């Protein structure tokens, strides 16, 4: 766990866009992490593919990974105003 967090922290400052890491603190059978990277459009996510690579030192410590794309719909969220671009 400390080795993975150290490898991720060593490259955090070199990422061009905001990247947030969260660690599961209760439950689960093994340490689990979630990486969040906000983008306004799917095209921006695809264009930043080179920045998505996990550091080699951290990649060696990963047993399994999955990718999910979440889409915020302000009209279905309580208390959020719709954003127009």
Question: How are the elements arranged and paired?
Answer:
Elements: H1 2-12, E1 20-23, E2 33-36, H2 42-47, H3 56-59
Number of strands: 2
Helix content, binned percent: 10-25%
Please count the helical segments: 3
Q: Count up the domains.
A: 1
Descriptive tags:
3 helices; 85 residues; 2 strands; globular; 25% helix; alpha+beta; two-stranded antiparallel ribbon
Could you please describe the fold and organization of this structure?
With about 80 residues, the chain is an alpha+beta fold. The chain has one domain (about 1-75). The chain has helices at about 1-10, 40-45, 55-60; strands at about 20-25, 35. Strands 1-2 form a two-stranded antiparallel sheet. The mean pLDDT is about 75.
Short description:
The chain has three helices and two strands; from the N terminus they run H-E-E-H-H.
């Amino acid at each position: 766990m400390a080795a993975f967090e150290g490898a991720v922290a060593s490259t955090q400052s070199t990422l061009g866009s905001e990247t947030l890491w969260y660690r599961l603190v209760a439950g689960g059978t093994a340490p689990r992490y979630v990486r969040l990277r906000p983008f306004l459009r799917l095209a921006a996510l695809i264009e930043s593919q080179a920045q998505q690579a996990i550091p080699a030192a951290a990649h060696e410590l990963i047993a399994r990974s999955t990718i999910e794309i979440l889409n915020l719909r302000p009209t279905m969220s309580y208390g959020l105003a719709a954003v127009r671009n």
